[in-house]
Amino acid sequence: MKDIFLCSISNVSSGNCSEDCGYCMQSAHNDLDIKTYKFKDKDEVLKEAKFLRNHGALGFCLVTSGRGLDSNKCEYIASLASMISKEVPSLHIIACCGRADRQSLSYLKENGVASYNHNLETAKSHFPKICTTHTWEERYETNENVASVGLGICSGGIFGLGESKEQRHEFLKQVASIKPHTVPINFFINAKGLKINQPTMSREEALECVKLAKQYLPNVRLMIAGGREAVFGENQKELFECGINAVVLGDYLIAKGNTPATEVERIRSYGYDIAKTCH
Fold it and tell me: Are 242 and 215 in contact (CB under 8 A)?
């Protein structure tokens, strides 16, 4: 029986992003009405961390909107990581703050961040169709920087952005090349106001994507994330049978997720247990 790793997200800086990623609700280029704020109160973030750890989360990801990790964000994330690592030492702290250089990443590591999440999102050949304000190469370079300072790499992407089946193979080869320990798998869900307009993927096609990811990434943590509720509804057992061994617990960046207790109960009803350690 495999244990399922649980990871949670805290949207600590929301909206008003200058980048034009066509799939993202936080982009100022997309016409969506979302809650925006610069930095979430630190005590509120700590409260979230404790609550989610009590429900089985081992990973806790601090996410900021915007293109990259500037000095203000770096100080804010470092202070959050330092505080959380002291108060909840059993949590594996992840930062997700866009483009980052080696110096900033080293500073985060010194202050308690264990891994960095920066998704490649899609194949290099397809990326210009979903974003024009920065390049795929920039994303790849950030992951190289993450590896160079000794942080763990968390990098995946979104299926259903209009990419071809060949581009899915290309994308997974590229993800495998950066040697991530965790790969988030998302399915694109259309929303009014987004620049990308693609239908919701069928259950069968989504499972094929998971199986393909397992082929290219047999020894990594495959984490099911955004879009799974829309595609699979309440019956998600096949995802785990096809290779998923990690789940985003609780809310997403903008969308609400199931309550942690509901999610844990579902996983256990499928015959799996909740992972107790990160390894």
Answer: no
In angstroms, the CA 107 to CA 77 distance is 10
Q: What is the pTM of this model?
A: 0.93
With a pLDDT cut of 90, the percent of the chain lying above it is 69
H/E segment holding residue 53: helix 42-54
- CA-to-CA dists, residue 60 to 93, 102, 116, 270, angstroms: 5, 22, 11, 24
Q: Is residue 279 part of a domain?
A: no
Residue 98 lies in a domain: yes
Binding-site annotation, residues for [4Fe-4S] cluster: 17, 21, 24
In a domain, 278, yes or no: no
Q: Of 234, 243, 175, 184, whose CA–CA distance to 210 is shortest?
A: 243
CA distance 256 to 240: 22
pLDDT band at 192 (very low <50, low <70, confident <90, very high): confident
User: CA-to-CA distance for 6 and 59, rounded, in angstroms?
Assistant: 6
Query: Is 50 exceeded by the pLDDT of residue 260?
Result: yes
Average pLDDT over all residues of the chain: 89
Residue 202 belongs to domain spanning = 5-270
For residue 192, the 8-state DSSP code is T
* Known binding residues for [2Fe-2S] cluster: 61, 154
Is 78 among the domain residues?
A: yes
For residue 125, what are its two tokens?
Answer: 């050949």
The CATH number of residue 202's host domain is 3.20.20.70
Query: Given this model, what pLDDT does residue 195 score?
Result: 77
Binding site members: 17, 21, 24, 61, 154
Q: Which of 185, 158, 190, 187 is nearest to 32 (CA)?
A: 190
> Which residue do the tokens 């590896």 mark?
147
How is residue 25 written in tokens? 């609700």
Please state the domain count of the chain: 1
